[in-house]
Amino acid sequence: MASIHETLAMIQQLSETDKNRLLQALSQQMQESVKSNEPLIKDIRERRNEEGFLCPNCGSKRVIRFGTYSVQGVKRQRYRCSQCHKTFTDLTRTPLEGTWYSDKWIPFIAGMIDGLSLRRQVVSLEISFPTAFRWRHKVLAALQRLTSKPFSGIIEMDETYFLYSEKGTKQTLRLPRKRGGHSAKRGISHDQVCVLVARDRQGTTYMHMMGRGRLLTRQLDKAISPLLSSDNVLCTDAWRAFNTYAKNKKLPHYRFKSTEKTRVIKGIYHIQNANSYHSRLKRWMIRFNGVATKYLDHYLAWFHFLDHMGFENTDHTVRTMMVTACTA
Fold first, then answer.
1. Among 57, 143, 237, 270, which is disulfide-ready with 301 (CB 3.0 to 4.6 Å)?
2. Burial letters for 277-307: b for 16+ Cβ neighbours within 10 Å, e otherwise?
């Protein structure tokens, strides 16, 4: 395939008539690309307004149509709120708001599902690296805002750890580590970041970064308590914060030590699902060669979505990821 510079050089050799034909063909192709996004925008509009058409700025229901605007020759609806008098569109306050190259969003999302690096996305889509980075984190920040559902029945909880990282920071407060380095201290320390995973047997999952160092009872109480009820049963490892928390909440609690042979109690109580989830997460994270701690929750939300969708790169998965990010 010819590079963009070679293509431009060949265009210069065309006659004016052929240049006009080429311009018309490219314009038509761009319009078709934008039109292909219209069903996606319709899905976003319907999902955002399931409970009625609301103004995204003030929440008022007093919304009227307010003309149209054009995107690469395709007209889209504009709205106006009669209460705050602000105008908005179907894409206001979504990752797609104000972005160029809207025709490239679907292949970009497909590349995210495939796990393509930003550099590969830059080359394949012909966008800049800052644009690709900004798009990725717009989507991930939206997925992170999704609220967890309440748990039911047996809940498995376990913590895992990632090295604290200031990747991408120009002035760090510590000496840099080599890629894939190790903590300077033995065991669990403030060189590591705790990530809590809690899952019930129906697949409802809570996964967020708790802080640096060991998991504390107060962190557990703040994160999990709103999602629990008196009917829940906890299955955890032997870390004392879990035991203290279960006693404070007066919940049935089964503990599993890694040094003991017993892995299942009464045939149903175990933490194998949580441990399996940890394993899949760790394997998936390897491709990034370390993630900056300030973005860790973004990547956890990314993995949680892909794991829920079975890591299948289908049209349904791409549309679901895009609609979910735009309606979170």
1. 143
2. bbeebeebbeeeeebebebbbbbbbbbbbbb
